[in-house]
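Quick check before the chapter quiz. The format below is the same one you will see on the exam, so make sure you can read both the input and the output lines.
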Amino acid sequence: MLMNKIKILAFIALAAIFSACGSDEGGSSPELKKNYIGNISPFDTLGVEFNSKLVDLDTSSESNVVLNGGKKWIKRNTSGKELYFIGTDTTLGGSHSFAGGKNDSIEFKNIKNSDGYRTPRTVFYFSTYTILDREPNNRQEDANDVELLGKLTEGVHFAGIIDKKMGMSEQGFYNLDYEDFYKLNLKRDDIISITITNKNTPIKVNFFGACYSINKSLCNDKTDSTTAKNKYSITLIDTVKTGHEQAVVGEVSTFYIKIFENANDKSNPYTVTVKKL
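Here is the expected output.
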C-alpha cells in the first residue's frame, strides 16, 4: 500500500514538472510566426506577428525592440500578437517610407507573453523594393531607366509614388506630381508584361513607344488601370509591333511606361514588375 502511494506521488510530481515546462497549449515562449518576408514596398506598413500575446513591452526605449534607425512604431501597443512599423522618411505628399532597395531587420529582446514566458532574442528580417521613381520624371525625356535595376528577362521590380507634390517652384508653389515615366529598350515581337499594384485610388499605366509608321495601328499605345474590384492591381501584356522599326529589322527602340492618375490630392504609392516574356 505504501509503495502504491509513493508511485502515485511520484507520478503527480512528474506531471507537475511537465506542466511547468510548458506542455499545455500556450505554455511556451513567444516566437515569431515568420522570421522573414520577401520584398515589400518601402511605403508599406510592416506587420510583425507573434504566436502569443505579448505584454509589458517598453515602447519608450529599445529595451524590447531595436529598430536600427529608419523605422518607427505605429499603434504602439504594450500588448498584442501583432506589432506595426513604418519608415521614418516622409515624402512631400505625406507618405512614410523605409529606405528602399535594402535588406533590413527588427530585433526583439527579452519579450514576454501573457503566459509569463520570455524569449531572450529573436530577429525579424525583411527586404524593400528599390524606389526607382526619381523626380522630376514627369516627361518621357526625364524617364527613369528600368534596366538599371536588372535584366528584363529575369523581371525587374521597383516602387514609386504619385506624390502630388514634388518640390517648390520659384514662385513658391508646389510642383505637382501626377505622372511618372520609365523607359526600357525592346525590339519587334518582344512580349512585355507590366504589373502595377497600388493601395489608394485607381492608377493608370500606359505603354508606348515612338511610332515611325503612318498607320498608327502598327504601333503600341495601350492603357489600362487598376480598380477596387481587382484590388488595385493590373497586368498589361503587349507585343512590340512593326511600326516602331525605323530601318533595320531587329533594331532596338526605346519604349515608355507612363504611370498616372489625377483623382485626388492623396499621395498614391505603387509597385511595378516589368518582365520580358
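If your answer matched, good. Residues 110 and 119 are 5 Å apart (CA to CA).
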